[in-house]
Specification:
Blueprint: H1 2-23, E1 29-30, E2 35-37, E3 40-50, E4 52-55, E5 63-65, E6 70-81, E7 88-99, E8 103-105, H2 122-127, E9 129-131, E10 137-140, E11 145-155, E12 160-167, E13 171-176, E14 181-183
Parallel strand pairs: 1-13, 3-14, 4-9
Antiparallel strand pairs: 2-3, 3-6, 4-5, 6-11, 7-8, 7-10, 7-12, 12-13
């Protein structure tokens, strides 16, 4: 009985995700094209999927594994302070990855479970993708930029199609991810 209820709940969630996906307007931008928003230039630079991640850091010993049946999707984003004001705060929020079957919120580094060093295998060391998480908010000098990765955890069979997020004072931004996609 519990299994049937769980299956019904999953089917309902999939149907809801599909209806949300199908109701979305098309992406207004494409990967690699700069988006000018209130003194900022935001560009999605690339999309990579991976089973294993390695945090880019000085020691470089922190690795992560996607749970069985899932994969990581990294969207590399760059923001340039083009407004000329010193100390402007870059703040974008509500990042969602839209796939061919649903929508997924951004995962935070703190939510990922590291692989213990003693459990590292040749497969992990051969297949990892190095990443640097994009901060939630930061102050950037005029003409300077910040670049980092947004992390998403999605079912392994799904393919990313769009990044969606909100910029205060501008609204929702949708970036089509076709053409900038690679697998590790």
């Amino acid at each position: 009985m519990a299994g049937a209820l769980r299956l019904a709940a999953v089917a309902s969630a999939v149907a809801l995700a599909a209806s949300i996906y199908l109701a979305l307007p098309p992406a207004g931008y494409v990967i690699g094209s700069p988006i000018e928003v209130d003194g900022w230039v935001i560009t999605a630079r690339g999309v990579v999927e991976a089973k294993y991640l390695k945090l880019r850091s000085c020691c470089g010993l922190t690795f992560y594994r996607a749970e069985k049946g899932f994969k990581f999707v990294l969207v590399n984003l760059e923001a340039v302070n083009a407004g000329g004001d010193y100390g402007e705060l870059f703040r974008a929020r509500g990042f969602r990855l839209i796939t061919d079957r649903g929508a997924y919120p951004r995962a935070r580094l703190a939510e990922l479970k590291p692989i213990p060093v003693e459990a590292l295998s040749g497969e992990v060391l051969a297949e990892f993708v190095e990443f640097s998480e994009l901060p939630d908010a930061c102050v950037i000098a005029p003409g300077e930029s910040i670049r980092g990765d947004l992390i998403f955890v999605v079912p392994a069979a799904e393919r990313p199609s769009m990044l969606e997020f909100e910029v205060a004072g501008f609204g929702v931004v949708r970036i089509g991810l076709e053409g900038g996609y690679s697998s590790a």
